[in-house]
Amino acid sequence: MENLELCKFREPLIFDTHSHYDDSKFDSIRDELLTALKDYGVCGIITCGCDLQSSEKALDLAHRFDYIYAAVGIHPSEISKPFTLEEIEQLACDEKCVAIGEVGLDYYWEKENREEQIEIFEKMIFLSKKLDLPIIVHDRDAHADTLEILKKHKPKGVVHCFSGSVEMAEEILKLGMYIGIGGVATFKNAKKMPDVIKSIPLDKILLETDCPYLAPEPFRGKLCHSAMIGFTAEKVAEIKEIDTLKLLNETRKNTKNLFGV
Fold first, then answer.
1. How many other CB atoms sit within 10 Å of the CB of residue 218?
2. What is the rounded distance in angstroms from the CA atom of residue 91 to the CA atom of residue 111?
3. What is the pLDDT of residues 184-216, one digit of tens each?
């Protein structure tokens, strides 16, 4: 299993709040990897759905592994696939579902259906409020509309893989939401990330991978998994000038506070 032996942490302090273990890139190693991760410091994982099928797979994994939880929802790049809100709601009522996600707006890959994206995003927010579940927000090249919708509806939740400015982070924090930080924080070309990380209070940071993508340095470009969060945590702790173990402990508490796990 790729690079697992290089991951440093053995204490169960890592909680990956955003992953995609249903992804086909894990097909040949999924069960072996998910069995092994608990020996490399991973105490919890939220695996996120992007459409109806992947949401069902996320729940299946959550029921097979006691330390895994699921989020269900419709990613903005998947809204053309068949689904009903009733089907998503039924999945969201499962005891191992802890959030509605991954949902939001993507103007990088999807440029022609912005009105439909906004409509589905708002419906997912309404569902999260109906079920009193936090929402996991995808925002790519859609900062203005994402922020406008969040200000309008004020859901609880997290903006994952945050890529906005310090000013946007401040607005998200005013709403009481959390900000998800992943491997991008370790990239040399992520010039604005240090200032963003400095601006986020310790009690509002969540750590994530978005695996199998966005592996942190020194694994950039390789298959990512949850134990690699240790490297992201070291970078975030360095920026915030605190101990890495303190950061891992605090972000684990934040995860419990938001998702109830």
1. 11
2. 29
3. 999 999 889 999 999 999 999 999 999 999 999
Residue 132 burial (CB < 10 Å; 0-12/13-18/19+)?
A: exposed
Contact 86, 120 (CB under 8 A): no
Is the per-residue pLDDT at 77 higher than 70? Answer: yes
Residue 239 identity (one-letter amino acid): I
Which residue from 17, 51, 63 is spatially nearest to 180, judged by alpha carbons?
A: 17
Task: Decide if 157 contacts 258 (C-beta within 8 A).
Answer: yes
Rounded CA gap, 166 and 153, in Å? 22
pTM above 0.85, yes or no: yes
CB contact at 8 A, 103 and 74: yes
Token digits for 64? 């097979």
- pLDDT at residue 110 above 80? no
